Each structure stands twice: as structure tokens, then as C-alpha cells.
Amino acid sequence: MSLPSATTGPATAGPDAAGPATGDDPAGRGGDVHAAWLPPEAFAPLGSRRVLVRGDGVLVDTVFDEVERACARHGGRADRTAGDRAVDLVLALRDAGPLPAAATALARAAGADGPLGGEGFALARAEGVTVVLADAPAGLLYGLFHLVRLGAAAFEGDHPVRRHAPAMALRMLDHWDNVDVHPVMGQVERGYAGGSIFWRAGAARRDLDRVRAYGRLLAACGVNAISVNNVNVHATEARLLTDRLGDVAELADALRPYGVRVHLSVTFAAPVVLGGLPTADPVDPAVRAWWAAATRRVYARIPDFGGYVVKADSEGQPGPFTYGRDHADGANLLAEALAPFGGVVHWRAFVYNHRQDWRDRSTDRARAAYDHFAPLDGRFRDNVVVQAKFGPIDFQPREPVSPVLAAMPATRLAVEFQVTQEYTGQQQHVCYLAPCWSEALTFAPWGPGGPTVADVAAGSGPGPAAGGGLAAVANVGDDPFWTGHPLAQANLYAYGRLAWDPGLDPVAVLDEWIDLTFPASTVGDPALARETLHAVMDDSWRTYERYTAPLGVGFMVSPARHHYGPDVDGYEYSRWGTYHFADRDGVGVDRTRATGTGFTGQYPPPWSQVYESLSDCPDELLLFFHHVPYGHVLRSGSTVIQHIYDTHFAGVQQVAGMRQRWRRLAGVIDPAVHARVAERLEEQLRCAIEWRDQVNTYFFRKSGVPDVRGRTIH
């Protein structure tokens, strides 16, 4: 395979890096597209059995197609009708009619605790037969891929009935893909894996086998919805709602067999730019009628359409503020149009003043989402989902959890993550993000033992609102490895798995991904491969944090290089905000109620007190909440300035160790994967050294305090 070379910045408009996977080989194993976590070898335990699939529907047909293909490859047998032939595995809808005796008994036991739900399934094994049962076709599809994860263990011994269901009803990926190539952001905004798999140079791509292969990967990790275009909706993209709707319908048709519903990002100004109306005022009857008619046309063409995603009054995007209205007015307008069809509007809470005066220390971007949205709690319709970033700023390597997630108990809230690594190395750097997301999802905004962020997203928080689920910015492009960096595939996989079950251990999820992506039968030394992948990836998020962002400081990135690489003051005197306030005496942003911006007061107790207190604030967030002298002593016993020096030197050492460990896998794993990762690790080490030297030199020159260990600081 010919591999694109590493770059030192974002890949925004990559070429057609690979041909499509074929219909006979949807994982792309026979072509140039990497199979990711669904290589044929992962299906060997299932495909070598005698399998009965029972039930009707498109998704059941998908299950049978998967089973039939696996059995053809691995020597098993696939049937759709129950007969007298012995079986090892039954995958069936509970109302599908006669089942083998062993399966009938297990079906009775599986139903003892009530319905399994639209996406749930039950798995059990007895008398040499493994049984997966579901009430609905989607559940059977997820049960199939659960069997693939279990591998041979699904067919060993006896297993009591175990029921499985997703914690989140909506598990969504937002693609920031442009139809036209944007002059600055390229084909995919914040895309680091080549071009779009949906669009190319102003037109829809017709190689839908690649899209189907993507849907298959999403189903296998638990994602059930995507939006197919950028939240920054430009002129061509706006037309996807009207005269280019057929392009969206083709994508929906390709993804439907894997239970993935399509959503569309729309511009709030659509009645003006598409409908020729003089206004987009949400209370104008003509505007309401326009949205109702446009939405009816969408559902006439795509009956299972999911809904709209809207970025409004944010970073120049149009919104209700133009007409003196608020976000509830704007969101409810679209919700009204979608409600008859069961659709939802995802209204992003990423709203802030992006034309700030850096001289004004009272302006705080962290406050913005809460200030805009918390007063509106209870005013949004039931089919509005307010989509809030997990942190209050913008996907930085370290942020506290956003206080918005505890402030709107009467509103459906979705938590938004960023799988694409905009601020975490742009898929040039290894940065396994599941530990970061897990910390956010298990955070208890009302104190230890109380409801968590995951509970809020699932609808089991302290308020009456239903859950909005999880959403994340996607990291896939048309690169042969899907995500540019082969190890970045783990972030996409882990996002889906944590959306299904936020309580999963990130290390265990990584083990799943390793088992699926690097089956033992394809690896020269499976133990060495597993050990190396864990050594490289387990702590990689914190390693990235060590050589980039100390103690909760963010945005020390290069604006000129689209947020790649260091520029300590790159945003410090910028209209976008101010983030570290470093001077000769100290560093950090005072966000306290007593002397700062008051941001700490947006949190409920006990966190409002914890973050307000200099002595109680967690070290990893110290500079996010407090401006402190360089000599301030952390709980570790180190001063702030020495911590900055030590962590930046340590981060580089850890990357060098990752590179050295990876070299041991030469000849052990797929040479194309090894070469691509080795190439990226070279770039990661170069960039980490640059981060270390620029950050340490900057703070040495600011503080005048030398490194107590006498290391070279320029």
C-alpha cells in the first residue's frame, strides 16, 4: 500500500487516497481500505459455527448477510429457517416463530424481566447452544457485533441470561464535512484524515460502498446517528435541505441497513437564503410555514430522517439574535416543524463573544454557554436537544466539566465530545481520548455519589427532562486507515462503546479494540503487540497534556497552523479570548467569585466551593480557575514553575519511549500499519520537543526562575 507522508499540520483537503471497498468485501480487506475493527479474522469463531438467524426486516437481513459471509469464509453454515438440523448459535427476534428447544427455553428466561427495548438484546448459552434474542431488529444487529467482540468466549461453557441495552438512546457523530472545498478549511473542517467519504469538490461521491463500510463500523461500536455536513453551513451545503436533498437520501439509504439514521446541519437563515423570504424571524408565520413545508419534503424522501443540527449566533453563523429573539425561540421553531415526524433539533450551546477585547479581564469565554442557556431552562420543546461541549471552553486537553450540564434539569441535554483531534495532536500524535471522556462522563456535578454527567445525558439526572444522549465530532476521512493515524481508530471505537455504556473501563475498551483490530491469527507475537499497544496508548492523553498544556491552561496553540503546534501567546491578545494571563509574577485565569470572573459560581455545591478555594482546587485545573505565583506549591510538593519544566521534559521522554517501543513491532504486525504509525511517531517526537522548548523558554523568560535540575532551557 502506498502511504501518504506525514505532515506537520492539518490535512484538510486530501486526495482520493483509496478506492472504495467492494460490495463483496465491505470491510475493504481486498482493496486499499483498512478493515479497522472488523477484519474477517474477527468473525472466525462465529463463522465456523452452525447458525440460525430468525426474523424479518432490513436489519435482520444485514445480520444474516454478515453471518452468511462469515460462514462462507470460515466453514460454518447459515440458515434462516428452523428445521431439524443441529445448531450452535441462534440469532432471533423473540416473535420470529419456532426456535430450537434450547433456544426456546432461553427465550423464556430472557423475557422474564420484561421487554428488551428497541436496541437491547439478551445473550445466553446452555446445552451447547449460544442464543442472542432481541425484540427489534436493531437489537439483533447489536447482539451480532457483541458476539464478534466476545469471540471464542461466546461459545465456551454455559452463560446465564444477560440483558444488554444502551445507556443513551442517541449516540451520534457530527461530520464537519463540506460539499464544496472551503478556501480555508478544505473539504473537511478539522479533518485530519484526508477528504470526505461523502462529498468531493462540490458533488456527492458515488462510491457508496465506502459509506456502507463506514455504517458497518459504526454499528459494530454502537453509534446510531450521524449528521453528514458541517455545522458551519456554507452556500452549497445549505441546499442539501432542498434541491440537493437527493444526495442526503442516498447516504441515508446506504447507512440504513446498519441502523444509522441521518441528520442534517442546516442554516438558521434558510428561509432567506433558500426560500427567498425577507426574514428568518422565528415568530414570523411565513417563516414557520416555510420550515414546516421544507421538513415535510425531507421526510417524504427520507422517512427515518433524524432531524436538524444547528449552530446559531456562534462564530458568525446566523441565528435568532438578529431578530431580537433567544435560543429557545429559534430552537422551538425547528422543533415545531420536526415534531409531527418524530425528529429532533440539536441546538448547539457553543455560543460566545468571539470579538472580545483582550484588555477586558471581566470577559470570560468559559461563562458564555451558561449565561446564554441556563436562563432558558424549561422553555425548550421536548424534541429540542441542547448540545453542550463537555467542557466550558473548546475541547482543550484539560478542562473542567461544563456547568451547563448541571444547570438545565428541565431541558434535554446532549454532551458533545471531539473525536477528531483538533487540540490533541490532529491525528499526527497518539492520544487515546477514552480516559478523558470517561472522566467527564463519570463526573458527579452535585457531588460524589450523586447523578453523573452520563446520567444527565441518559435522562436519569435530577430533572424531569429526557436524555439527549452523546454527540461527537467525527474523525474519519477517505484515508486508507479511515482516521489517518491507525491508532486514532481507537478513539472512534471507544466513543461508540462509551456512548453505549459510559461505565466501561477505557483500558478494557482498548483491549476490545486491540483484539478486534489485531486478531491473534494475524500477529506474529500477540502478547508483545498487546503489551506495546497498551504501553503506547494507555497514558497517551496525559502524555500529550504533559508536553502541551500545564495545570488546565489551554489554547497555547498556533492560530496560523490551524491549532497545530505551540504558540504560547497565539491567542493571548486575540478577539477569541484570553487563556493564561502569564506575567512576570504568575500565571492562570482568576475565575473566582471573590476576585475574578465569577465562573466558579456557575457550579452547584460542592464544586462551586472546591473550585473557588485555592487550597481545594484540583492541581490539574489550578490555572484554569486561579492566577497564582510561579512559586505556588502544588500538592505534589513542586512549585508551579517547576511542574511546568518537569512535565514538559517528561512528556518528551515519554514520546521517545513510545517511539522506541513501537519499533519492536516491526515484522510483528501489518507492515503498512507499522510504517504509518512509525512515521507519525517521528512527527510527534519532533513536535513534542518544540512544545517543550517553547513553553519552558517562555515561562523561564517570564518568571526568571531557573530549572532546579539544570536542564537546557533556551
TrEMBL record:
Glycosyl hydrolase family 67 catalytic domain residues: 163-482
Annotated active site: 315, 394, 422
Pfam families (UniProt xref): Glyco_hydro_67C, Glyco_hydro_67M
Keyword annotations from UniProtKB, A to Z: Carbohydrate metabolism, Glycosidase, Hydrolase, Polysaccharide degradation, Xylan degradation
Coiled-coil segments on the chain, per record: none
Compositional bias per record (Low complexity), positions renumbered to this chain: 1-25
Molecular function in Gene Ontology: alpha-glucuronidase activity; xylan alpha-1,2-glucuronosidase activity
Gene3D superfamilies reported for this sequence: Alpha-glucuronidase, C-terminal domain, Chitobiase/beta-hexosaminidase domain 2-like, Glycosidases
Stretches the record annotates as Disordered: 1-34
Domain Glycosyl hydrolase family 67 C-terminal: 483-711
Leader peptide range in chain numbering: none
Entry-linked InterPro entries: A-glucoronidase_C_sf (IPR037054), GH (IPR017853), Glyco_hydro_67_aGlcAse (IPR011395), Glyco_hydro_67_C (IPR011099), Glyco_hydro_67_cat (IPR011100), Hex-like_dom2 (IPR029018)
GO cellular component: extracellular region
Any one GO biological process: xylan catabolic process
Domain of life: Bacteria
Similarity remark: Belongs to the glycosyl hydrolase 67 family.
Descriptive protein name: Alpha-glucuronidase
Organism: Micromonospora carbonacea
